[in-house]
C-alpha cells in the first residue's frame, strides 16, 4: 500500500504542464514527418525525377543516410557547447529545434512552387531530411530535461503514440497520395507545415529546465519512503517486543 503511494505519477501536473505539451507536439510532428517520408520518399523522388523505381528507392535511402551523417557531424559541436557551457540547455534545445524542424520546413514550403532542375529537386529532398539530422546529434529532445524523476512514465505514452503513427502511416500515405494524385507540392507543403508547427511550438512554449513539480514530487517520494521505513522499523520492534513478552509468559 505504502509502496504504490510513494511511486504515484503526478499525471494531473504533467497534463497541465505547457512545457510537456510543447515537447509532445514536437516529438509527434518529427515522428509524423520521419515516417511519412519513409513511405512517401520513393514516390516523391520518382515523380520529381526521371528515376526508375529502384532509383527512387536509392534516393530515399540516400536522404536517410544524409540525415544520419549530418546528425553524427553535429556531435563534436554539441559536445563542445555542452562541455564549455557556451549556452544553456534550453537555448541549445531550442536551437536544435530550429535547425532540425524550422529550417527543413521552410525549405519545403519555399520550394513547392518553384520549378527546379532534376538535380536541384534531389538536393532539396536530401536537405529536408539532412537538416533534421540535428535531432539525432542532440541525443533527441526528451522528457529527461523536464521531469527526470518521471521520464520513464512520460516516455511510455509518447513512444506508444509514435508506434501508432508508424503503424497507420502506410495507410495515410496511400490515402493522401490517391487524394492529391500527381500534385507533389501538396505532400511537400504538408511536410513543411508539420515541421514548422512542431519547431515553433517548442521554441515558443518549450523548455529544458527541470520543472518545479518534478522536484517537489521527488522530495515527497523521499519523505514518504523515510516515513514508511521508519514505520516498518517500529512495527518490527513492536513484533519483537511482543515475541519477548510471550516468551516470558
TrEMBL record:
The keyword Membrane applies. Its main location: membrane. Keywords: Membrane, Transmembrane, Transmembrane helix. The chain crosses the membrane at residues 20-37, 57-83, 95-114, 120-141, 153-176, 188-210. One of its GO terms (biological process) is monoatomic anion transport. One of its GO terms (molecular function) is transmembrane transporter activity. It is a multi-pass membrane protein. SUPFAM superfamilies: MFS general substrate transporter (SSF103473). The keyword Hydrolase does not apply. InterPro entries: MFS_Na/Anion_cotransporter, MFS_trans_sf. It is found in: Membrane. One of its GO terms (cellular component) is membrane. PANTHER family: LP19554P, SOLUTE CARRIER FAMILY 17. This is Major facilitator superfamily (MFS) profile domain-containing protein. It comes from Photinus pyralis (Common eastern firefly).
Amino acid at each position: 500500500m505504502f509502496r504504490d503511494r510513494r511511486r504515484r505519477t503526478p499525471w494531473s501536473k504533467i497534463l497541465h504542464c505547457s512545457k510537456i505539451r510543447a515537447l509532445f507536439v514536437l516529438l509527434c510532428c518529427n515522428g509524423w514527418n520521419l515516417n511519412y517520408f519513409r513511405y512517401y520518399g520513393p514516390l516523391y523522388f520518382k515523380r520529381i525525377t526521371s528515376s526508375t523505381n529502384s532509383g527512387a528507392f536509392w534516393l530515399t535511402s540516400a536522404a536517410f543516410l544524409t540525415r544520419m551523417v549530418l546528425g553524427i557531424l553535429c556531435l563534436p559541436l554539441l559536445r563542445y557547447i555542452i562541455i564549455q557551457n557556451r549556452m544553456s540547455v534550453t537555448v541549445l534545445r531550442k536551437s536544435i529545434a530550429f535547425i532540425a524542424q524550422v529550417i527543413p520546413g521552410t525549405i519545403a514550403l519555399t520550394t513547392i512552387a518553384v520549378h527546379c532542375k532534376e538535380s536541384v529537386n534531389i538536393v532539396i529532398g536530401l536537405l529536408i531530411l539532412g537538416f533534421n539530422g540535428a535531432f539525432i546529434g542532440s541525443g533527441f529532445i526528451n522528457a529527461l530535461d523536464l521531469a527526470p524523476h518521471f521520464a520513464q512514465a512520460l516516455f511510455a505514452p509518447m513512444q506508444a503514440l509514435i508506434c501508432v503513427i508508424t503503424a497507420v502511416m502506410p495507410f495515410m500515405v496511400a490515402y493522401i497520395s490517391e487524394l492529391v494524385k500527381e500534385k507533389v507540392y501538396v505532400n511537400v507543403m504538408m511536410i513543411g507545415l508539420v515541421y514548422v508547427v512542431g519547431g515553433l511550438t517548442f521554441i515558443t512554449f518549450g523548455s529544458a529546465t527541470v520543472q518545479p513539480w518534478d522536484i517537489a514530487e521527488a522530495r515527497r517520494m523521499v519523505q514518504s519512503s523515510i516515513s514508511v521505513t521508519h514505520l516498518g522499523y517500529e512495527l518490527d520492534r513492536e513484533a519483537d517486543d511482543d515475541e519477548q513478552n510471550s516468551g516470558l509468559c
